[in-house]
Amino acid sequence: MTLARLGAAHQTRLSFMRQLLRRLVRDDWTITQTTFEIDAGGVGHAVYTAQGPEHAYSLVAFAHDLPADQRSDRVIATAWDATFTLFDGTPTDADIARLRDNVPLKESGRISDRELSLSRANRSVRLWDHVVDALSAGHQPDEEQVRAVGYLMRTTAVYGLGKFGAADREQTRHRPECASPFQVEMLSVYLARCFVMDLVERMARARNPGTAVPLDPAVRRRFGIGNSTGLGMAPFLVNHPQASPHRPPRPDRRPPALCRDPRQHAQRRHAARGHAAAQAQLLRRLPFRSPLGPLAQDQHVPSCPFSPRTGGNGRRLDPATAARGRILTWSLNEIEALARKPTRGAGYPWGLAEETGRAARWTARQAGPARWPWPMC
């Protein structure tokens, strides 16, 4: 794990972003800025829609005026310069209003299965002000500084796969553009780059409308999107091994591009399905009350302290809050975690707890769309 070896791992044709860019060009995708309501202080929202041959995806981005003392690259931060979500389709005004109340809050908020990812980003301390100053003064930023940093904003996480209520992979895996790993997340990042480029030019024009100039295309191509975390890749590869059929990587050798024996992976997947079905019986013996029953959408659950119509300790909620609660649903990843944690807390070993979580996930999938997702309680 030396820096020399890690630094030599350059992109290849199998890299996630290169796969996405080839598809965007080959299938003639179009990216349109449908909304850009950002004020002079850099606060507001924007919508960018990527239209493919069969589906459209829209990045809904919210820009914030973040004080310098609150800016942090740590994943535990609670405020950011920008927050994003990738919407499946084209959002309505009601969707944007709902997302405005939830996306900037991250863990404290909640998104629905209409959203595919959730992300946030901070401005580059070294480069953002320099670029805004240069463009507002009528000239391009210094190329050496641009080359040294390489980004105007950096994400501190790009969540997907059911996190915070987002859509599960099962919802989009049949689509060609989503079949390869991390294509949803890479599309989110690519559209976020489009937003950041337009935002920095908007800030420059707001500072000096008379002399401000846009980014030169040659300079614009040098900017990417920074990323300070990659924690989501580990659980993705653990929970979706079929999406990346590689051998475990070694520090001194790159993994092979293709699987040596695809039949072996097929046999393992078949055995895992049968094992999960058998372990589903364990759910009936767990010492906790499972919310995985066939609850009606508006049904009140007296035994549940956080049903859609009551708050904590049975407090009754106002109609607006209750309406928001009824749209919150369990994702498959959350169902898996919900079964895994109490199993471990009951004293079962980690291996059995993980199998119980997978069994709960399998059981929920077999129920079909008429039975899940259920209201959160």
Q: Would you write up a description of this structure?
A:
- The chain has 377 residues and is α+β, with helices and mostly antiparallel strands.
- The protein has 12 helices and 7 strands.
- 36% of the residues lie in helices and 15% in strands.
- Helix 4 (128-136) packs across helix 6 (183-207), helix 9 (262-279) crosses helix 12 (350-367) and helix 11 packs antiparallel against helix 12 (350-367).
- 31% of the residues are buried.
Stretches where pLDDT is under 50 for at least 5 consecutive residues are: 245-259, 282-317, 321-328, 370-377
**Could you say which overall geometry the principal axes of the C-alpha atoms support?**
globular
Number of helices: 12
* Major pleated sheet: 7 strands, mixed
Q: Nearest-angstrom radius of gyration? A: 23 Å
Q: What class do helices, strands and sheet pairing give?
A: alpha+beta
Number of strands: 7
Helical content stands at 25-40%
Instruction: Kindly estimate the percentage of residues that lie in beta strands according to DSSP.
Output: 5-15%
SSE string, helices as H and strands as E: HHEEEEHEHHEHHEHHHHH
